[in-house]
Amino acid sequence: MKNIKLICVDLDGTLLNDNKEFTAISQAVIAEARKQGYKFSFCTGRSPYACISLIQSWHVESIIDFVIGFNGSLVLDYQKKQFYQQDTLDGSTLPKIFELIKDMNYEAIVFDGYSEHATKISERTKWIAQKNYLELVLDDLSGYYDKQINKLLCIIDKDQLDEFLKDIPNYVTPDFKAVRSNSEYLEFIHPHLSKTNGIRKVCKLLGITLKNVISFGDESNDIEMINDTVGVAMKNANPFVKEKAQYITEYDNNHDGVARFIENNLLKQKL
After folding, report:
1. Where are the beta strands (DSSP E) in the chain?
2. How far apart are alpha carbons 271 and 269 in whole angstroms?
3. 258 within 8 A of 26, measured Cβ to Cβ
4. What is the model's pLDDT at position 191?
């Protein structure tokens, strides 16, 4: 791993524990990695705007170089506060998506800046707004049918989502791709979008290539980046992700698996 220059890390199920905590151990290891010359980026399905609020609440502004959000659709150079958008989803596909999932129990969400627009006000949509410091707005989402959006998030009962994605990691059509980001989250994005696209943008800004990137993930929306970089799957990862990974962490997300891997394999001196 001599040529690694950029560390890209998924959040939920990867860097964060199940209580959604960015632990002091993980923060310390990442801070040391940056001192030793590595650049560090979140690479998540979450909104970069939500990540800005979270970074401030965690008081880790000094250790974040980039935020690759919306599964690669919106990249933020955090230190320069500059955004780069690519591969957005055409809002005209939303009726097709709603037709596809009409028999499922779901809430649909579009993230718009610091707001969360949801088809239902439920405990699930309230929780997402609260944890991301977003305003929750009740909306049938028809106002987005003629716009470009970064993604549509659908919260679906786990059993129904398991059946929908049975034996396949992602659901792909010419109009959109559906990727799972946790047990109840299905994210509808541009059919050609992946976290790798966002990483490529960061690589271009840094003057490096994908060979200089190590990435960590746990779910099907991490498959492309795990496959296209030096990919590390979490111990707790979906089997589809583990199949693509070059490495698997010794510890899961509840025991600082990312930090322990970085410490043991990248740092010149351990903390």
Report:
1. 6-9, 39-43, 66-69, 74-77, 82-85, 89-90, 106-112, 115-118, 135-138, 148-149, 152-156, 170-172, 177-182, 185-189, 213-217, 230-233, 247-248
2. 7
3. yes
4. 95
Question: Which residue type sits at 242?
Answer: K
pLDDT range class, residue 102, cuts 50, 70, 90? very high
How far apart CA 165 and CA 265 sit, in angstroms, is: 34
Secondary element (H or E) of residue 130? helix 123-132
pTM of the entire predicted model? 0.89
8 Å CB contact between 246 and 230: yes
Residue 63 contacts residue 9 (beta carbons within 8 Å): no
Return the structure tokens found at 12.
């939920």
pLDDT tens digits, one per residue of 150-166:
999 999 999 999 999 98
Amino acid at 174: P
Q: How far is CA 159 from CA 71, 98, 243, in A?
A: 24, 18, 23
Query: Residue 247 to residues 27, 129, 215, 218: CA-CA distances in angstroms?
Result: 22, 34, 10, 12
For residue 271, the model assigns a pLDDT of 61
Q: What is the pLDDT of residue 2?
A: 85
